[in-house]
Structure formats: C-alpha cells, structure tokens
Amino acid sequence: MSLKKILVTGGAGYIGSHTVLRLLERGYKVSVVDNLERGFHHNVLEGSVFHKLDLAETDKLAEVLEGQDAVIHFAAWTLVGESMAQPEIYFGNNVGGSLSLLKAMLRAGVKKLVFSSSAAVYGIPKESPIVESCPEAPVNPYGESKRMVEIMLRWFDQIHELRSASLRYFNAAGADPQGRLGEEHDPETHLIPLLLRAVETGQPATIFGDDYPTPDGTCIRDYIHVNDLAEAHIRALEWLDGGGATGQYNVGTGQGHSVREVLAAVEAVTGVKVPHTVGPRRAGDPPVLVANPEKLRRTLGWKPQYTGLRGIVETAWNFARRRAAAPQR
Ligand code: UFG
User: Fold this and answer.
1) What CA–CA distance (Å, rounded) separates 329 from 121?
2) Tens of pLDDT, residues 265-308
3) Whose CA is nearest to atom 10 of ligand 1?
4) Which ligand 1 atom is nearest residue 285's CA?
C-alpha cells in the first residue's frame, strides 16, 4: 500500500474507533483527532497518536495533517432529533467543521478523504431499495448537513483535485466481536442498545409506532455491522489510492428488518423477553430505509460479512455484558 499515514477525525466515537482498530490491525499508522465532546477517551486505541482538537481549530489541524496521506472524517453530531431543535450546531459543527478540515487539508497538501455521510441525505425515499441516484431530499438538518458536505466535496474535487468517497451509512449496529469496543452514546437513541438496556434493567423499551405500511406495522431498516462499515472505509481509501474518482456509496446489507424482528432477535440472543410498550410514531421516521449496496460491491469489491440480524445482535450483547462487568470505565 502506498497510503500509510491516516488521520481519523472522530476516532474516539463509535464507528470511528472500530475503523481505527481495523486500520491498526492492517498496519496503517493512525492519528486520531477528537474533541471528546461526544467521543470517549477510553475508545482511543493504543498504537494510535491522539490529538484532542476541535475541527474549528484550522491552524492546529493543518499542523497535525503535515505528512499524512489521507483522512477519514467521522467527527460530527449525529442526532436527528437534536438537529430539529438546534440546527445551528449541526450546520456549525458538521458543515463548518468539515470546511475547516478541508481548508487544513489543502494547506497540508492532503488530497484524499473518506467522509461519513448518511442515508439521511435521501429523506423519505420513494423507492426501495435505495440507489445512489435517488433524489437527495433530507427532511432534517442532520441529513442536510451531510448533503451540504457532499456538495462541498464535489467542488473541492473539481477545483482542488481533492478526491473523496462519501459513504452513506444505513443503520450502524453491533460491536467488535471481541468486545473491546462497542456502541455507547449519551444519550442513547438507537434501537439495539435500547432493547439490550431494557433486558438489563427490566425497564420497558418503546416501539415507535406499529401502524406503518409494513408487514408487521413497524419501521424497516437496513442494519449494517460496524466492522463491515469499517471495512468499507478501508476499501474506499484503497480505491482513492489507486486513482479512483470521487463518488458516493450506500453502505448497507440490502436486507431490511422491522423493529419487531430486531426485538425477536434480541430475545433469541439474550434468552430474555424484552419488556416493551408500543408508543406513537417518532417524528421524521421513514417507514422503510433499505440500501441497494451494488455500487459499493462492484466498485470497491466490498461485501458484508454479517448478513443476519442475530450475528449483529450477538456482538452488541457481548459488548453490553462486558461493559456491565467493568462499570468503572
Ligand atoms: N426505534 C424504536 N424505539 C426506540 C428507538 C428506535 O422503535 O427506542 C425505531 C425507530 O423508530 C426506527 C428504528 O427503530 O424505526 C431504528 O431507529 P434508530 O434510532 O436506531 O436509527 P434511525 O433509523 O433513526 O437512524 C439512522 C441513523 C441516523 C440517520 C438515520 C436516517 O442512526 O444517523 O438512520 O434516517 F440519520
């Protein structure tokens, strides 16, 4: 490989830390930039070089970027609901922060970037599964912020020859199979950790609506294991390294699962009935979001290793139990 030194922003977060682990295992030299506002210091992995920096600090970022070969950019706010209440922090951090990073990259002469985008760029799609050419019509500032960065990246390619791959994640889920890392958000809003928490605490989880136009009435999502996501980033780096063009890629398995199916998988894995109630729909939830991941398969040779819900939930449960046994973290 000619790319050796990779700077990862948001490397102390959920998907970022799993990607750093994989990069280190592949022999890359990794520097992590994170302001630790939502990431955790315990996710900074031994073997990486850590810089506690905010993306707004362009000058310091440019210094850290000197001599790096490429960037993987995760650092962002990711809560849809919060973005509906405080759009300013989403446009400030996600768009403004990314622009600061891009300026620093130009200054340091780093011209390859893998960007964490989201299925949220599609809004409420008319087609399923979704292909990358589907109209981009975000329905919240979070999705809009991702779309705006994708637009900036197209212009930075055309004008500055900064090549990038934007990976549009569907529902990231699961944990490192050895339980070293896992999903930890504060507050937690994601389905699988909340169902596992209900198993652990006995406090009921809530199903957000069971009157959707789907076979069992609950929303359908495409759950993609975090290690498969991490691998997609490395494939994207290799693609850019080989001279590949700027592009946007869905990252999902192509299989949809309803909330009730996820609940059944959690019960099968934990052996415990998940206490739950059915509540109203959550504002802004599309009924069905499933990826067509063909472009990623075809272009980057990527294929998910975790194709079943059960395997994904097993890794998340393994991590939850390890965390419960080590509460001092
Ligand atoms: N859900 C529940 N109860 C909960 C939490 C979630 O029923 O307590 C349901 C949601 O309604 C949804 C599904 O479980 O149907 C998955 O919800 P998550 O919150 O886990 O994930 P989202 O699909 O809302 O979010 C994902 C990404 C976002 C991205 C969004 C695009 O995590 O970053 O898809 O719509 F913006």
Assistant:
1) 35
2) 999 999 999 999 999 999 888 999 999 999 999 999 999 999 89
3) 208
4) 11
